[in-house]
Amino acid sequence: MDIYKPSPKEVYSKLDTTSNGLSENEAQIRLKKYGPNQIEEVKKKPLIFKFLENFYNILALLLWAASILAFISGTPQLGFAIIGVIIINAIFSFWQEYQAEKATEALKKILPSTAKVIREGKEREIVAAGLVPGDIIVLDEGDNISADSRIIEASQFKVDNSTLTGESRPIRKTPDGMSGEDHAFIEMHNLIFAGTSVTSGSGKAVVFSTGRNTEFSKIASLTQTVKEVQSPLQIEINKVARLIAIIAILMGLTLFGVNILVLNLPLNIAFLFAIGLTVANVPEGLLPTVTLALAAAARKMVSKNALIKRLSSVETLGSTTIICTDKTGTLTKNEMTVRKIWIPDELIDVTGAGYTPKGKFLHKGNEISYDEMKELKLLMRTAAFCNDAKLIKPQSEGKKWKILGDPTEASLLVAACKSGFNPKEEIKRIPRIIELPFDSIRKSMSSIHQKEDKKVAYIKGAPKKIISLSNQISEDGKIRPLSPEEKENIIKIHDELAEEGLRILAIAYKNLPNDFNDYRPETVEKDMIFLGMMAMQDPPRPEVYKAVKQCHGAGIRIIMITGDYGLTARAIGEEIGIISGDCQVVKGKEISEMSDEQIVQLLSSGCDVIFARAVPEHKMRIASILEDEDEIVAMTGDGVNDAPALRKADIGIAMGITGTDVAKEASDMILTDDNFATIVSAIKEGRTIYENIRKFITYIFSHETAEIIPFVLTAMFAIPLPITVMQILAIDLGTDTLPAIALGRGPPESDVMKRPPRPRKERLLNLHVVLRGYIFLGLIEAVLVMSGYFWVLYGGGWHFGQTLPFSDPLYIKATTIVFVGIVMGQIGNLLTIQTTRTSVFKIGVFKNNWIIRGIIFEAAIVLAILYIPQLQGVFGTAPLGIIEWLYVITFIPIMFFADELRKYLIRRLK
What are the TM regions of this chain, as residue ranges (predicted)? Predict the structure, then answer.
């Protein structure tokens, strides 16, 4: 619908309404036709269903089967213990996987609940959900806009479109029709949109789109329709679970068959052995440990200004291959600073940083006062007068100067203050009468001031636009005609400054007669006297260069996607090291015209790429294309309209300072300092946690073999079962939990950011983990504990083939030494598994102080189970003597030095 084209009067007939508005009857008919004016939510799976899903995943089903068999075999206490394990795992899985999707709720909060309308010629307030196309809405300063509408009346009417465009500058709106050429739909000066707000003035508008047809609802729809996909870690954990389940089922069935067919054991005993072997195969503590390790990493990242909303995102960050980043505020300080001033034939450098109004004006290296050059003085006055920003002095020492308003305007005000100009005093002397606000069509802003017996119009804006509006120039205090040749020369100077990555505004003025009162832009903004240009830069954050270098060293590609101009983006890219060779700058219009295949070809061409003048829709499309190419994408954003792209990316990163609530809710991580370097720190933490998860999986699996082999030996040789299921659960969910978490909190290895990102197809449970955990460490531990088991049995008079009842003190002592032996072996493993190939002595055995806590925790649980009578009965244990303790304690150095020897031999071979 080209609703922006007709005149205000023609709009009524276009939307089948009148200046008196709709009748109540017609409004109800249209409400039935178009539906309520509200964001439609995609139906989501109820929370209870999400929780219950964790009770029938493959590991849970395996444990359910084991618990049922336990009840059938007459051991209800074991059945209840296994059900307890299922519930614990379900809770931890739900906590890890579920995240409350509040993006739609945050969007809803932006929309007002009521609206003022004219119906049947009377103004009234209605519920905003009842608005329909054809309604006339009445708007005043501070109102939030409820529906997409066409302006029909306006008085000094400005709106804040930042929820849609990310641009916080107030935009002037007028009722006149327009052709629409060269303007995006949301930039039309006679259209207003749901979700935006009125910053000043008043007006009336006719609604043309409601509900799901508004531009705002389209963002909500995109946010909701982006599919939730599992993180790389969740995929890997599921694969590990499936593999373990297959192994457990096969081994359980095999043992059951051997017990029945070969050993002729009673059915209930065969069941019990099968259950034991199944439980021994399942690492019950894996999911809680992974979740707690991720939670610990997330807490650690908070101190580094990264707030993690979704736990699995910690590890996904470590897999990141591409960072798609904004420029302003993320790579730069978002503190626009005037660096150069051009007045006819003179270039002046300006020193100082940020918004502190301290700095010098240097002409050819020599400090000058703004009083020395009339044009400079006029330029400073125009920069300060034609300006809506405010400079806020810090309230105490150590605090920074702050601004209210647009950063670009603030930089002009700061430059004027540096020169000694006092805006407050001058504005009292020469007050503003009226303002012609900036808009994207005129590309300029004017303010008219009363100066004694005349009026003065001050203007700033896009240099080429201001030059075209000027026919005179001020030089050496004299005003003379501005020739076409001089205009060309000024444009050339502008282009040279732009190539340095500077943003440039031109400044002009003209005197008006005292009785002048026609304040239309076309009458004010013509025949101007050109004063000069002010060139500013949003300087890069000092820490970004090092962070970019780290990314390149880690094999992570950085793609800048910015709404800024290409030359500015490229200059910043070169300064911070994103661009190191050939670079192609692709503008927004070109992105829209390119096919997906062309974008893929561009991104794989080998040259650096910057996307400039890009809009949020481009960000979402680029993220989608990169993910289709098997990249793991981190995407930054801050506006409402960035929400779909943040949801689409593997890691959506919102800005904590400048970001909207919607962007924060749609993201996986929030940067509390809006700093690119924080992303790199988070990636380092993500890589570290992945390596640490591998370490504690190795640690957890190293005792699996020592728990499985006793069942295998019992099945093969009919010996008394060396370890009970309750003792296995005490290890898996008790003694091993805190040590595994301690490994998860280990420091990064020195080369963690010198390796390329891990491939998507790389397995968490790879051959190295299996060989080191299950085979090497597991077999040694199994041999040690079984030797202890037979040492106790033979020492107590047992002989091969003899059966022992579960209540026999000798049997209880023998199983106790196996239980304690596994824990001691695990202490040795805990100390050595801190490194993969490097000797643990190089990093320090106890550098990670959580290791000490883990050992104390293990020892405390073992002593409690051995020496508290009530626990002895539950777990089937008995106290050990001094000789027995000395025997099992030797397992610690044996396990430790065995793995240190393995690492040494690998280093020698490599």
Answer: 54-72, 78-95, 240-263, 764-790, 810-830, 850-868, 874-898
**Residue pair 663/640 in contact by the 8 Å Cβ criterion:** yes
Is the distance from CB of 405 to CB of 419 less than 8 angstroms? no
CA neighbor of 107 nearest in space, from 263, 199, 30, 214? 214
Range 782-820 burial, b when 16+ CB lie within 10 A, else e: bebbbebbeebbeeeebeeeeebeeeeebbbbbbbbbbb
Contact 459, 385 (CB under 8 A): no
Identify the three-state secondary structure at position 696.
Answer: helix
880's tokens: 């050990």
User: pLDDT tens-digit profile of 493-545?
Assistant: 998 998 888 889 999 999 999 999 888 888 999 999 999 999 998 888 888 99
The pair phi, psi for residue 786, each rounded to 5°, is: -70, -35
Domain ranges of the chain: 8-41+105-225, 283-301+686-909, 306-332+541-674, 337-533
The token duo for 427 is 């504005």
Residue 542: CB atoms within 10 A of its CB come to 10
3-state secondary structure 563-607: CCCHHHHHHHHHHHCCCCCCEEEEEHHHHHHCCHHHHHHHHCCCC
CA distance 121 to 139: 16
The list of the chain residues with pLDDT below 50 reads: 99-104
Query: Helix, strand, coil % (nearest 5) of the chain?
Result: 50, 20, 30
**Whole-number Å distance between alpha carbons of 31 and 147:** 14
The DSSP-derived string for 514-571 is TT-----HHHHSSSEEEEEEEEEE-PBPTTHHHHHHHHHHTT-EEEEE-SS-HHHHHH
Place of tokens 């209800």: 76
User: What CATH number matches the domain at 283-301+686-909, 1.20.1260.10, 1.25.40.10, 1.20.1110.10, 1.10.10.60?
Assistant: 1.20.1110.10
How far apart CA 496 and CA 117 sit, in angstroms, is 52
Q: Residue 178 in contact with residue 189, Cβ under 8 Å?
A: yes
- What is the pLDDT, as a whole number, of residue 472? 95
Classify burial at 77, counting beta carbons within 10 Å of its beta carbon; exposed 0-12, middle 13-18, buried 19 or more: exposed
Q: How many CB atoms lie within 10 A of CB 394?
A: 11
Structure tokens at 754: 């010198």
For 713, 777, 785, the CA distances from 725, given in Å and listed in that order, are 15, 21, 16
**165/192 Cα distance (integer angstroms):** 12
Class of domain 306-332+541-674: alpha beta
Give the separation between CA 120 and CA 24, rounded to whole angstroms.
7
Contact (Cβ atoms closer than 8 angstroms) between residue 87 and residue 288: no
Give pLDDT, residue 507.
Answer: 96
Token representation of residue 639:
């506006």
Classify domain 8-41+105-225 by CATH number.
Answer: 2.70.150.10
Catalytic residues: 326
CB 103 within 8 Å of CB 223: yes
The DSSP 8-state label assigned to residue 772 in this structure reads I
